[in-house]
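Quick start: what a row looks like.
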Amino acid sequence: MPDASARFPAEWEPQSAVLLAWPHAGTDWAERLAEVEETYITLVAGITRFQDVVVCVADDDVEAYARARLSSARVPMARVRFVSIPYDDTWLRDSGPLTLVSRDGFRLLDFRFTGWGGKFEASRDDALVQGLASSGILVKSDLQPIDFAMEGGAIDTNGSGTLLTTWRCLHERHPELERETVSGRLRQWLAQERVLWLDHGYLEGDDTDAHVDTLARFAADDAIVYQACDDPADAHYGELQAMAAELAAFRTPDGAPFRLFPLPWAPPIIDRNRRLAASYANFLIINRAVMMPAYGVDEEGWQVDAAAAAVLADAFPGREIVQVPCRPLIWQNGSLHCITMQLPAGIVAPD
C-alpha cells in the first residue's frame, strides 16, 4: 500500500520554483549554443513572470555569463537563484529530483540515472540529486536513494494516486522484470494506488524509449492531454492512433472515462536528413500558467502552434498559455518539459 505519510504532487500544484541547468560549451549544446541560449532566456523570462527559477551552473564563469545574459534580457533577477553543481547535460526532468511531500517536509527520490539506458555518459548527472540535497538550497528534505533506473520524464501523476507511464521505456530499462513487479515498486516508491500503462506511442527522433511526457500528460485528476496524429500518411499515425484508443479505454477510480484533449500534430521538422521529435505534450505547468513548446517558423507552423495553445487553454482553464520557441531543443531530441523540473512549494530555502 502507498505510504500514507507522503504523496507525489501533481505538476499543477503550488510550486516554489522551476529547476533548470544552464547550457554551456561543455555540454552537447556546444554546436548550436547561441540558439539554445535564446530558448533558455525566453523560458526563464516567461517563468519568472509567475514564480522563481533555480539555475544550476557548472562553475563561476558559467554563472557570471548566465547572470549577464538574463540581466540584459531584463529578467527580474530577484526571482533567479543560482546553485553551483556539476552536470553532464541539461535534461533535468530526467536527472533532477522527484519530490514527495510528507507531513514533516519533503522526500527527494534519487533514482539511478543511466543516460537513458547507457546511451550517453551520465555519471555527473546521476550525482546531481545528491549534490542538490547537500547544497543547502533545498530545506526540510530527506534524500532517498533508489537502486532502480528511471527518469522523471518516464512518469506522470495526477496527484491523487494514479501514475501514467509507458511499458516500452520501463521494460527497456529493466527487461528482466515483469510488469506487475515494476507496477508494485512504482506504487511503493511514488506513493501511488495504481499505474496506467501505455503500450503504444513513440516519436521518431526520440532517444528516451518513449517517455510519457512526450506523449500524454495529466491535466487534472480526470483529464489527459495527449499528442495526436491525424495524418494517415505519417509514420506515427498507427502508433498514436493506438495510443489514443488506449487512453480512451482508461477509467478513473470511479469508473468514468478520462476527459481527453488531443493536441495537433506538428508539421515534420527535418534537420540534416533527420526528423526531430516535435511534441506539444512536452509542456511545463507552473503557478498560474502553462509554458508551451512552439515549433513554427512559417505561417503553417504558427497556425499549428496556435491550435495547440487553444487545446491547452481548454485543458487548463484559468492558466495563461505562454509559448516558448523550442526548435533548438529538439535538435538534441528533447523539448521544454525535458529541460525543467518543478520544485514543490516550501522546499526552496529563503534567499
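That is the whole record. The mean pLDDT is 96. The chain has one domain: 6-344.
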